[in-house]
Amino acid sequence: MAQRVLVTGGGGFIGSHLAAGHLAAGDEVHILVRPQHQLRSDRLSRAIVHRVALADGGAVESCLQSVQPTLLYHLGTGTGRGAQLPAPEEWPGLADDLINLLALLSAASRVDTLRVFVRTGSIAEYGNAAEYPDEDAREEPLAPYTLALTAGAHYAAALRSQLHFPVLTARLGLTYGVGQSEDFLLPWLIRRCLNGQVSEVRSPDALRDMLAVADCVAGLRALASSDLPGGTIINLCSGQLLSVRTIAETVLAATSAPAGSVRYGVQASQSSAVNRVGANPARAAELLGWTAAISFEEGVRCMVEQMRAQAAA
Question: Is this prediction's pTM over 0.85?
Answer without folding.
Answer: yes
